[in-house]
Amino acid sequence: MNKNNNTQITVFYGDQPAHAHERRAINVVRNELARRNMPATLLVNFAVARGARQIDLLIVSDQRCMNVELKHVDPTLPLIATPNGPWRQRLPEGAERMVADHGYYEQALQETYGVADVLADLNRKGVVPGPTGKGFARHIDTVVCCDPHIPAGSTLNRHAYVSVVGLDTLVDRLAQPGPGLPHWDRRHWDEVIRHLGLYPEGEDTTEALRRRADAAAVEDYRRRFREFTAANLPPLVAAAALIDSAPVTVNADTMADHLVGRQHRIQLAAESGQGKTHLAKHAALTLTDRGQMVVWIDADDYRKGHLIQSLRRAVSPFSTHEAHSLLAKAAEGGSGITFVIDALEKCPHREKLLEQLHALQNQYPAALLVTTTNASMPQLAATCNVHLQAPTGVERGRIATTYGTSDRVAESEEYRTRYDITLAAQVIADLPAGRDSNTEVLDDYIRRRTPSEAVRAGLRCLAQAMNAGVRTALPIAEVMTTLRRCEALATTPSAIDDTLASPLIRVYQARLRFDHEKLARFLTAEHLVLTAHDGAELAQLLTQPAHRDLRDHALMLESDPVRRYDTIRQLADPTLIASAAMGSFGIPTAKQAQADITELLVQAAAAAPHSTFTAKDPQAASLDGTWHHLRQWTPIEESLLLAAGRCAYHGMFLPEIGALMDATDTVMRTAMRDLHGAGSRMAISTVVACTFGPFGQKSTPAAGLVTQGAQDARNFGDRAATTIPTATPTWTPNPRCLGRLYLAALLSHPIRHDIDAQHLPDLVKTGLAVGGYHLRLKLLESAMYGSSVLKSDTRQRMVDVLSGYDNDLGDWGTSSTLIDALASYDQITPVTSLEGIQREIADALSDVDHPDHQTLAQGIVASMFEDERVLGPYSEAIDSLPDNQRLTLYAMSVMPSDCSFGTPWAVKQLAEGADGADDLVVRALARYAGPLPRETFSHSEAVAAHLNGLSGWAKISATLPPVDESADEVAVAWRLVDELLLHLFRGDMVEQAAGIWHRLSHETPGSTVTILRDLYRANSELLSGDQNSTVNPHRALVAAYPDQIRELLQWALTHRDDLPGGREKWHPMGGTSGYAVRMLGVVGTTTTADLLRHHYVHDPELGRDAIEAVHAIDARTQQ
Fold it and tell me: Measuring CA to CA, how many Å separate 1009 from each of 93, 969, 1001, 1020, 1079?
């Protein structure tokens, strides 16, 4: 008899299984039974008399007696099981193939009857007890076992007496109470074994010796892999995550549970520093402890089409056996196999790697765990998606306590990622309060792990070499050259060896990397600080694109407050200057910044009376004009004024700023009188707009720069409550001053102090009386958003102010804002009621094809997006419609020629709800799936509506709607791109893709790049044609055609000035050229990296994006 571990698993054979997959399946069962400490007897590969049936496996345990018919099936093809007739599998193109010429249900049932006949024969002879019920067949659990598992999407029609299970769940079923012969003991089964002529598995047979040798080879690999992986591996703290969008807490066991015994493909995603690789390593150890063979492959080690080389390099440190040989031993021996692919985003040939891994999963029953920073990786076809979330609350405390202390760490917003927390927890105890920034934590962490200043200097040289070459790794030959040229190491013979022995770096495959990129960036910043001769030179270094991310580190590392402030000032960054003035870089630096700002505000107030104003056309209804200043502000001075506004948001410099506003107000009123005398009917609004508003920006006065800084602080800064009022002391010293009122309005949105709340009605009343379109607009906005904080008497005073304001009805901007403000105080009666809207909808639906009714429908749908306190409950009325009427209303609303605000949303509802039966809906989708309208109020809205229409059209047609031929390049390019997108929405690839891309790259390259940029900006997640998944149009194109897109984007960089929007700066996502550089980081090759490195990393507009792209490419392509 054979025993596994300490659990008695006894195996008897009629004959040795002829097929490797049968031997492997039996070993899987045997190993899993042993792991769960479940004693059992396995009767393998024997025949019974009935129909000369061959029994694959009969398992006898304390819980069940199970007849197992083993069937190896292709796990990628859905299985179709019917009670009568052959079983089939569905091929990818939809056709079906038979997996046998008979039905497995009937085969398994006949085998059970055959076993039952044997037992009944022995019972008649008085050798064994009889059944407790009707016949022995009811005491045998009959299953068809799919090896390795039941394919996803299978259709298994039930059979009354036979079940279908996967090999991955067979032992789960066996562990549950079920059919069996519990009143039998071992003697009775021995009688059955002797009757069948089965023989026990020998200890010294050739097969047994081979199996033990194979098991020993796999066990030796596991032991060595475990020792290597566990060495110096920090502990793991359970992490917050989403598993298939459901919030959970994950640890090594959670990950292992999703991998053991299944051919799963798990995607583990998170941003850098959140612990993906750390969690994967702990999961690998847990899997190893459970008897699995884990193969760890760094994705950047893969070369296109040569997965075998990666496998060999991954296995060779732990075994002398060839990789495939060892995998075959593990598979046949029943050891589970898991491939871990770490940092998939670093692989330049992800699609090919995944293709080969899928093929490998078909060759071996293996699970796949992939770590990546990319949240979406459709080519992986993941069966489970795990997304690590940023740590919060209790988890932050546990991480900090595990690695050191949670004091000043767990609650600090300074440490955002798990990596940040682990470092801080280790060093925070030695850092004084107020000296524990991320920079100071890294400084102390590196100091603790660096034995000498010479070694630290060597590490700085290596970091700077990587920085200079825009790389994240260095070949070892270049490492040695760099260290030999490092002057700080020249006098210490052992310094080079000590540097290479540092725990902060690692050498793998003849390339050196820092243990974490944050260490390299910190050391680069330290190098800049130490090599710069003064603050001006350091500022110049930090303005280079390659160094912009190093500013915080460098400024914290600069210990001389004079040099530090000089650096900050020369950088001309208002955010940095404001931070310095508010004390972020220490008291000495704060005093210098405050003095600098104060002095400039005094100078600006003195210079204000010397400014003059001219209007573009005084008699026209225009707000355009120009200020002319005797003193022109330098970029540094402009930054100081903007910083003053940012500081004003926090109550600083209010007297000095007030004096500037008073001086500016005097010259503004002179300009107003002159304009009025020249015939202007909008003198106040024009001057206010060109001083504080969006007009005249090329000549903005100092007061306007200050208010702009305050607006920036409000938009992008901290909106927490303040300890002192800010708005009230700004405007009350001179209530008629336009600048004070304008700034006070900005400081009142939101209200952050009770005194400002009490005086808000007075501020609004005073400012509305003074006038000026942009001033009134800001005041009404402050009033509207103050409705959530104003109480009792103050609230009623505000209602009285708003109700008593006599606004010019022709001023639609402030009129609509006034209505919204009154509505926020519940002072507006809706224009119509629910019943009135329902009548309006019924009227529109009475003639769905009439243009007037379609225009009415467009207005109804657009009203859904307005404040129902003003217009009425349009959303409620539309939502209450039956589905078919609601879709008809949406279809009518998108038929007018002009595109309204709600058009993209309405088209999306049509796309998601249409089934192709309604003619109007089909016509609406065809219109928006057709040519993109060129003359629209919002191009982005038109693109969104078009993509929504195309996704809906893909559900009802495999071809684009017919259109007239066009010679317009943009229209031709859109048509070709739409052809590609249509098929991606439908889940397939267009046959003419090569020809389409040839035309796009040769006939319309510029327009095509612009379209790709528009798709990127749209960032849409749209339903696929089968409605079971979503498709992001841009990501889908990049995933399907990376090579073609790369060629286009590289062409775009060399034709930058010819591209529409090639140097566009205003858009928050950047211009076309910036888009091209960023996307090259995703699809670029080493050749692309060289192009960016040599021509674009120093470009003042594209440099930062180019550096990040080069880093991304290097991370994927370097070993």
Answer: 33, 12, 9, 18, 11
